[in-house]
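Record filed here:
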Amino acid sequence: MSDTNYSKLSQEAEKVISRVSKDEVVNLALDLANIDSPTGYEKDVLEFIYSWLEKEGFSPKKVGMLEDRYNVAGRLKGTCPHVSDSKGLSPFSIQVMPGR
Protein backbone atom coordinates (compact mmCIF):
# COMPACT_ATOMS: atom_id res chain seq x y z
CA MET A 1 0.00 0.00 0.00
CA SER A 2 2.96 2.26 -0.62
CA ASP A 3 1.12 4.48 -3.14
CA THR A 4 -0.47 6.52 -0.33
CA ASN A 5 1.19 9.46 1.45
CA TYR A 6 1.82 8.49 5.07
CA SER A 7 4.14 11.39 5.97
CA LYS A 8 2.05 12.29 9.03
CA LEU A 9 2.18 8.79 10.51
CA SER A 10 4.56 7.64 13.20
CA GLN A 11 7.49 5.42 12.33
CA GLU A 12 5.72 2.51 13.99
CA ALA A 13 2.59 3.04 11.89
CA GLU A 14 4.66 3.31 8.71
CA LYS A 15 6.42 0.06 9.57
CA VAL A 16 3.09 -1.74 9.96
CA ILE A 17 1.56 -0.25 6.80
CA SER A 18 4.63 -1.15 4.74
CA ARG A 19 3.92 -4.82 5.53
CA VAL A 20 0.28 -4.70 4.39
CA SER A 21 -0.44 -6.00 0.92
CA LYS A 22 -3.13 -4.06 -0.95
CA ASP A 23 -4.09 -7.22 -2.83
CA GLU A 24 -4.51 -9.18 0.42
CA VAL A 25 -6.77 -6.47 1.85
CA VAL A 26 -8.89 -6.39 -1.31
CA ASN A 27 -9.13 -10.19 -1.40
CA LEU A 28 -10.09 -10.34 2.28
CA ALA A 29 -12.82 -7.73 1.73
CA LEU A 30 -14.13 -9.66 -1.29
CA ASP A 31 -14.09 -12.96 0.60
CA LEU A 32 -16.07 -11.39 3.45
CA ALA A 33 -18.55 -9.69 1.11
CA ASN A 34 -19.21 -12.98 -0.68
CA ILE A 35 -20.34 -14.76 2.49
CA ASP A 36 -24.12 -14.72 2.75
CA SER A 37 -24.82 -13.30 6.21
CA PRO A 38 -28.20 -11.61 6.54
CA THR A 39 -29.29 -10.44 9.99
CA GLY A 40 -29.66 -13.40 12.30
CA TYR A 41 -27.53 -15.69 10.11
CA GLU A 42 -24.03 -14.34 10.68
CA LYS A 43 -22.37 -17.57 11.87
CA ASP A 44 -20.59 -18.34 8.57
CA VAL A 45 -18.96 -14.92 8.39
CA LEU A 46 -18.06 -15.07 12.09
CA GLU A 47 -16.39 -18.45 11.61
CA PHE A 48 -14.50 -17.05 8.60
CA ILE A 49 -13.21 -14.11 10.66
CA TYR A 50 -12.26 -16.37 13.57
CA SER A 51 -10.35 -18.74 11.26
CA TRP A 52 -8.61 -15.87 9.46
CA LEU A 53 -7.45 -14.34 12.74
CA GLU A 54 -6.18 -17.72 13.93
CA LYS A 55 -4.34 -18.35 10.64
CA GLU A 56 -2.70 -14.91 10.81
CA GLY A 57 -1.28 -15.50 14.29
CA PHE A 58 -3.91 -13.80 16.44
CA SER A 59 -5.47 -15.39 19.50
CA PRO A 60 -9.17 -15.15 18.53
CA LYS A 61 -12.00 -15.33 21.02
CA LYS A 62 -15.76 -15.67 20.59
CA VAL A 63 -17.67 -13.32 22.88
CA GLY A 64 -21.44 -13.45 23.18
CA MET A 65 -24.46 -15.09 24.69
CA LEU A 66 -25.82 -16.93 21.64
CA GLU A 67 -24.13 -19.84 19.88
CA ASP A 68 -24.72 -18.48 16.36
CA ARG A 69 -24.50 -14.75 17.12
CA TYR A 70 -21.41 -13.42 18.83
CA ASN A 71 -18.52 -11.01 18.41
CA VAL A 72 -15.04 -12.08 17.42
CA ALA A 73 -12.06 -10.43 19.07
CA GLY A 74 -8.43 -11.10 18.30
CA ARG A 75 -5.29 -10.34 20.24
CA LEU A 76 -1.88 -10.14 18.62
CA LYS A 77 1.05 -10.19 20.98
CA GLY A 78 3.55 -7.44 20.49
CA THR A 79 5.47 -4.70 22.16
CA CYS A 80 3.51 -1.49 22.35
CA PRO A 81 4.83 0.98 24.91
CA HIS A 82 1.44 2.69 25.20
CA VAL A 83 -0.77 -0.31 26.05
CA SER A 84 0.01 -2.53 28.98
CA ASP A 85 -2.19 -5.14 30.61
CA SER A 86 -0.11 -4.78 33.78
CA LYS A 87 -1.36 -1.21 34.13
CA GLY A 88 -4.93 -2.18 33.38
CA LEU A 89 -5.17 -0.02 30.25
CA SER A 90 -7.79 -0.81 27.65
CA PRO A 91 -6.92 -0.44 23.95
CA PHE A 92 -10.56 0.53 23.40
CA SER A 93 -10.61 3.58 25.63
CA ILE A 94 -8.96 6.97 25.45
CA GLN A 95 -6.25 7.45 28.03
CA VAL A 96 -4.50 10.79 28.61
CA MET A 97 -1.02 9.97 29.82
CA PRO A 98 1.56 12.63 30.72
CA GLY A 99 4.62 12.59 28.51
CA ARG A 100 3.12 10.55 25.68
User: Anything to note?
Assistant: The chain is about 35% helix and 10% strand. The mean pLDDT is 79. Strands lie at 59-63, 71-75.
